[in-house]
């Protein structure tokens, strides 16, 4: 039996621009063997069309477990979620979703998942409607929106610079912790394991960024 973690973020350089927090969350509850992380992948893309998710499903065997930190990190909507669950069940693979403490290998678990995924889909649509209504009402009152506004442009630039600096500092810390392994030409897997033992787990994407790959 192998335990795989799957993580996803939409943008690589926002406040949650790496999947490391998801990995830390998962590892606080389970000992995982491998991680597949989709970065810069929108949640609107179906699970099995995402690059890293495709790699994950290609290596799954009977008895394996796939762990996702949050429901919305795994699936685009109710249909995508349930179709993936059924696909995994046919291959005797268990899916665990930590934020709802759910094991969907049982009938009651699948029923609860259906309800919760439906609620999540409904809420996303309601949020989109409220945002659209807010913009419409604002424009009627003479307000302007958009990235081309100078104030918005400056604000985005400042936040991007800060995030970039934080990322560079973090990459420097990772390289420092791996200095001996880098000198020994260690594999990425060895480096990831070493960082986990230090209590600083990172995704493979973050490691490669730190190493300039």
TrEMBL record:
Q: What keywords is this UniProt entry annotated with?
A: DNA recombination, DNA-binding
Residue intervals of the Resolvase/invertase-type recombinase catalytic domain: 2-142
Under InterPro entries, the record lists: Resolv_N, Resolvase-like_N_sf, SSR_resolvase
- So which domain of life are we looking at? Bacteria
Q: Where is the signal peptide?
A: none
Gene3D superfamilies in alphabetical order: Resolvase, N-terminal catalytic domain (3.40.50.1390)
CDD domains in the cross-refs: SR_ResInv (cd03768)
List the GO molecular function terms: DNA binding; DNA strand exchange activity
Listed PANTHER family: DNA-INVERTASE FROM LAMBDOID PROPHAGE, SERINE RECOMBINASE PINE-RELATED
The protein's name:
Resolvase
Species name: Obesumbacterium proteus ATCC 12841
